[in-house]
Every structure is written in structure tokens, then in C-alpha cells.
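Chapter review: from sequence to fold.
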Amino acid sequence: MMRYLVRCFKKKNIKDVHPYCSDYYKHDALTNTYALPIEPMLDKSDWIALESVLEEVVLPPRYKKNAWKAKKKEEEKSR
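The C-alpha cell string follows.
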């Protein structure tokens, strides 16, 4: 998709791509992301979590195999 966009911009002779780019990917947003220092917490006992968060059970997502992957493997085996 990105290659297509770049090709299209070149074909249309568009030099300024900023109007087509989301604000989240621009220089100011990226520099603001890392403006505050992040300090590592070495021990789990230092973590501060709400009781409601600690009680919440998080399960892994249900994984469903993609049909095309199995089909592709079958094709490779038949070669």
C-alpha cells in the first residue's frame, strides 16, 4: 500500500506529503512521545495498581488458524 502511495505522489508530482500523513506520525508527535523520562521499576513490589485491575482476569485470545496457511503448506508438500 505504501509503495502505491509513494508511486502515486511521484506521478502526480506532489512534493509535500504532510497533508496526507496523520498527525500521529509527524515529527512533533514522535518527539512528544519521548519527552518525559521513563524510569524502570526493578521490583514488582514497587508497582502501584488499582485493586480492580488486580482482580481482572486476562485470557489469551482465541486463536483460529488461517485456512490459507494450511493450504500453502499442503501445496509445498505436494511439490
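Two observations follow directly from the output. Residues 1-33 form one domain. The two ends are 31 Å apart (CA to CA).
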